[in-house]
Design goal:
mainly alpha, 171 residues, globular
Length: 171
């Protein structure tokens, strides 16, 4: 939990640095070959895909345990992400046109909160962590987010998932 809070504060600090613009521009042009792959990865981490997956997990696990944690963690992450986007209202990098704000990354908060409850073995940890990292790299590589957006989205997803897990244990 302390790691997530540290990542969130690091993200907030990076908001004020211009270094991120240079990093996004450099990464965008160095990874242009991977843009079709990055687009598919980003599409698979859209919120509506995460919602469908979380509902499927909820039904499969009969509303208990991991399924409940996935769905309620995603709902909490959605709410926090929306509020943060409205409060901070940070524009996206110049390379990416969108009417939506950049900070924090909704893709990262969604995918992290959806899959975090299922990380209970080394193999699943490797698989899901790799997926989460790929989503983060793809969002930066497409020029859709700054690195701090990605760190904040990951932190929100992780904090949401862990908070729901703690609340479920208190019950």
């Amino acid at each position: 939990m302390a790691i997530s809070v540290s990542l969130l504060s690091l993200s907030a600090t990076l908001l004020n640095l211009n270094v991120e613009s240079d990093l996004v521009n450099t990464m965008y042009f160095k990874t242009i070959f991977f843009h079709p792959l990055f687009s598919v990865i980003s599409l698979l981490s859209e919120f509506y895909i995460c919602i469908i997956l979380s509902i499927a997990f909820f039904v499969y696990y009969r509303g208990r345990g991991k399924g409940r944690a996935s769905l309620f963690g995603l709902i909490l992450a959605l709410a926090i992400t929306y509020l943060a986007k409205e409060a901070i209202s940070r524009p996206r990098p110049e390379l990416f046109y969108s009417s939506h704000d950049s900070f924090p990354s909704g893709h990262l908060s969604g995918i992290t909160s959806t899959f975090r409850p299922f990380i209970n073995s080394r193999l699943k940890a490797l698989l899901f962590t790799s997926l989460i990292i790929l989503v983060g790299v793809s969002r930066i590589g497409l020029g859709a987010h700054y690195p701090s957006d990605v760190l904040a989205g990951f932190s929100i997803g992780l904090l949401s998932s862990l908070s729901v897990r703690i609340l479920m244990r208190l019950k």
